[in-house]
Q: What sequence folds into this?
């Protein structure tokens, strides 16, 4: 482990002691890569390519290809209006996909998120519109309802031992039935334009300052976080990224961030829905990568027995993760209801479940657990949304759209499986 490598540099006896005769000092390979400069990074890239460790690069390339193809077929696809609309349309799906990412990190699946999103949208609409409850309180009840539903799934899975597939499949049917019961005989509840749900989706910050400030804050937080992390690692005597590499990574983020701000400002400005989505991603990314709880999720997803032996409460992690999935399904359902300004018997239905699972997997989260990121939800939703937007502009039928989306999902799973096999062959999985 890293501690053993660090001690190996000073010998088994401690700092300043020569290694035993014939012993080979352990050296962190990342140090060698950085010492070799561009040649070292090129060699490391080739190694990652062979072992299937490319991270989000294939998804980013897929977005570039999709945008290039549809942009060449119809100029309207790359217009500021269409890209702005796309940034809003992916929010509902993306929010639900974030919760699916948490479940996939455990190597499990949640088939109920579509029904849960529809149920929570119906709860809000009935409480606020039909019964006159304060809209903020109705929103809180709806989101809390999603958390409770997820906790129920987690209890049956973690404590009773029912497979997650079965629990959430049953939930998919049960919560859809409850949604129909909540909506009543009318079947549809229209949500006013001035409702908090409608405004969360439709509000636009028209001032150019809003979009550029958001981009600047995001890039600044990334830079500060990277520098602080490098400083802590250097103080602890473990390998850290040099400042030059951190600056290059920051520039690589700044270019698309400010380009997106420029495009949004060419239409109506920064959508509030997109801003909320990005804030949620940053917060949940911090939870996953910077907290003990997040590391325990990865540990349980990587090896349940190993997590138990490390003293991790596996039932608690499982129940809490399914509760997070239910919460995010509720949040996503509210945004979807705000998008169409209604809650109906079709809420949470159709191809929503397929799209959110596809978004999480296409974005780079492994179906086998232990590998992924909440940013997978953004990238995957962007891929799915771009394909659907492009095909809608081209007038492609829904039947063909379903087939193409299913093919993209299959391709993502194949890439995940091949990547995992390559990593096993390289001794990295």
A:
């Amino acid at each position: 482990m890293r501690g053993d490598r660090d001690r190996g540099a000073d010998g088994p006896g401690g700092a300043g002691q020569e290694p035993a005769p014939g012993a080979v000092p352990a050296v962190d390979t990342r140090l060698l890569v950085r010492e070799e400069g561009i040649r070292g990074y090129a060699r490391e890239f080739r190694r990652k390519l062979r072992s299937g460790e490319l991270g989000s690069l294939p998804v980013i390339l897929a977005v570039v290809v999709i945008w290039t193809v549809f942009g060449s077929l119809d100029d309207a696809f790359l217009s500021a209006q269409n890209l702005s609309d796309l940034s809003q349309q992916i929010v509902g799906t993306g929010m639900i996909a974030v919760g699916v990412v948490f479940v996939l990190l455990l190597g499990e699946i949640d088939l109920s998120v579509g029904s849960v999103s529809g149920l929570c949208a119906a709860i809000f609409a009935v409480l606020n519109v039909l019964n006159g409850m304060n809209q903020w309180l109705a929103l809180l009840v709806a989101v809390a309802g999603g958390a409770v539903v997820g906790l129920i799934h987690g209890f049956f899975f973690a404590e009773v031992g029912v497979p997650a597939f079965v629990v959430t499949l049953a939930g998919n049917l049960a919560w859809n039935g409850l949604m129909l019961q909540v909506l009543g005989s009318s079947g549809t509840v229209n949500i006013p334009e001035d409702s908090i749900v409608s405004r969360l989706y439709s509000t636009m910050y028209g001032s150019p300052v809003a979009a550029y400030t958001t981009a600047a804050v995001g890039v600044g937080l990334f830079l500060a976080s990277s520098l602080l992390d490098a400083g802590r690692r250097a103080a602890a005597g473990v390998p850290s990224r040099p400042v030059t590499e951190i600056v290059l990574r920051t520039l690589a983020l700044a270019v698309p961030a400010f380009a997106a701000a420029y495009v949004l400002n060419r239409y109506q400005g920064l959508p509030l829905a997109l801003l909320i989505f990005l804030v949620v991603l940053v917060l949940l990314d911090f939870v996953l990568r910077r907290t003990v709880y997040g590391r325990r999720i990865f540990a349980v997803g990587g090896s349940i027995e190993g997590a138990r032996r490390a003293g991790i409460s596996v039932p608690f992690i499982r129940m809490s993760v399914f509760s997070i999935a239910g919460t995010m399904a509720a949040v996503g359902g509210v945004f979807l209801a705000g998008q169409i300004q209604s809650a109906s018997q079709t809420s949470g239905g159709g191809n929503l479940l397929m799209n959110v699972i596809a978004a999480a997997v296409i974005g780079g989260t492994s179906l086998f657990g232990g590998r992924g990121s909440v940013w997978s939800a953004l990238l995957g939703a962007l891929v799915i949304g771009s394909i659907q937007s492009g095909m809608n502009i081209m007038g492609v039928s829904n039947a063909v759209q379903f087939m193409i989306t299913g093919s993209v999902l299959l391709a993502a799973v194949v890439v995940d499986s091949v990547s995992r096999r390559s990593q096993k062959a390289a001794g990295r999985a």
